[in-house]
Amino acid sequence: MKFEIQAKLSSMSRWGVLFISIGLVAGLGSIVFHFLCEIGIHFFMDILAGHHPPTPAGEERMFASSGREFNRYILLIIPAVGGLISGWLVYTFSPEAEGHGTDAAIDSYHNKGGFIRGRVPIIKTLASAITLTSGGSGGREGPIAQIGAGFGSFIATKLKLSSRERRIMLAAGVGAGVGSIFRAPLAGALFAAEVLYRDPEMETEVIIPAGLSSVIAYCTFCMVFGWGALFQAPPMTFQNPLELGPYIVLALVLAAFGWMYVKCFYSITRIFRKLKIKNHFKPALGGLLTGIIGFFLPQTLSFGYGYVQQALNNELTVMALLALAAGKILTTSFSIGSGGSGGVFGPSVVIGGAIGGMVGKIFHGLFPALIAQPASFVIVGMAGFFAGVSNTPVSTVIFISEMTSSYHLLLPSMLVCSLCYLASQGWTIFSKQVKNRTQSPAHMGDFFVDILESIKVKDLEKKIEIPSLVPQDMRLSDFKKIFQYTKQHYFPVVDPQGRMQGIFSSTDVREFLFEEGLNSLIVMDELAQKQVLSVTLNEDLSSVMRKFTAKNIDSIPVVKEDDPQILLGMLNRKAVIECYNNRLQKRKHHEK
């Protein structure tokens, strides 16, 4: 007992150190990436173009304004330059770093055993910083997710851990990165567990490791850039059930815009993939198209979080909010869909906040007594939009609450997120998501075992075959007469009382069948295997399959539990597989 406790404590300490290390590296990665973004914004946006986008209340610019006058024509060109540099970096050194990094982490979890090449996070960080700060529209969670995920994968690979353990460490890195850069540690952990699937399902074994890593990453990041939420929202509460009517309308509008966002994003992605030009230059073309939109709508470039803050402060008109939402859909699609590097959560927050603010202001104008605070629609809009396009209704509610320090709108947020999720089942911004655990290659083996463990041998009693028995003293000459008329491949050998003493297969006797001189010399008991591998009626089929595999046999004796020499019959491997397939089909039909 004492030894078991010590072993458990040792294992806990070991895993604790690993997940703390992942959180620390993810937090440091967030610091580095944020610093690179501040440098890039100061150089590209401020010094070159004279563009000074607002910041959210929880962040301040690290560098003082250059005072340069705004130049739209420079703003037109800069995203293309950033795309050219980013494209060269990605497609020269790490092509898998293109697009939004969270999708790459999801793909690695399901299809690659949690493996990520060590250079990917480095290239992703540099390429994303250049793409986003030169005007490309995207979020910073993608590169940070890959930094944490890449480090988790790297440690697991170096320590030669199993694929399952590497997947858990990868997911913990995703949660730590996202939780730290958005100052939402709880949401980061839940997001890492929820974003893997389209169905409302979570990878439960990920939550605790991701939670530990996320807390460490969050603390590391905030020790440098300050504590508190990303956005500052005015005090607001939900008190009137009649408000749920406008919120339901908001959910429908968000779902419609979410459909447009996903369709636009992947339509543009497909167009760029079909273009007959070198991949290195595609992000530059996407950047040029982004710059054209940015020429007329500068607020749609780069991150855009400051405009969400303005919407929360009720500083934007309905038309300005509509232009922000529509323009952000296009600039994000061109920036990331062309092969540029960045995340999709950040733009979703901006788009959702703008749509929410627009709907909130309209209802405020129509029913000022009922909708007194349009800012509440900005918060709920942020949550609902991303919940719909990403299939993450649970973590998104927590995300927005932590990002705004506003926990009084949980009820309308839950309603809108649930409705958006239900209305958006046919599409997702994360193309690498799988429907559920049963369809994840990472869990194929687990699911196979789960089904087999739920079935007992006695459930296949009708499939147990009664074989022809071979007496111990039977001569080979007599066995030949039986063998030429049977299709049986395994022959139990029994004593005069009918108790099994051994078993042999047709392969075991084949070499003696054509030796005429041995007919009267060989007794069948001499050819039998005395160590008989058998099963009982109460064993599950997982145990049976392990025994089939251990000896590479196709049929196995079923014996009484209290007396392994009393043979009940033979169970065929084909019958076990047929039973598994039938049970699997029933489960799939039930899920539908």
Describe the overall structure.
This protein is mainly alpha-helical and 592 residues long. The chain folds into two domains: 433 residues, Clc chloride channel, CATH 1.10.3080; 138 residues, CBS-domain (Roll), CATH 3.10.580.10. Helices cover 60% and strands 5% of the residues. It has 21 helices and six strands. The strands form two sheets. It has a three-stranded mixed beta sheet. Helix 18 links the parallel strand 1 and strand 2. The N terminus is likely disordered.
Q: What's the topology here?
A:
Blueprint: H1 2-48, H2 72-93, H3 101-111, H4 120-133, H5 141-158, H6 163-181, H7 185-194, H8 204-225, H9 244-274, H10 282-296, H11 305-312, H12 318-337, H13 345-366, H14 375-390, H15 393-404, H16 410-423, H17 444-453, E1 470-471, H18 476-483, E2 490-494, E3 500-505, H19 506-510, E4 535-536, H20 541-551, E5 555-560, E6 563-572, H21 573-591
Parallel strand pairs: 1-2, 4-5
Antiparallel strand pairs: 2-3, 5-6
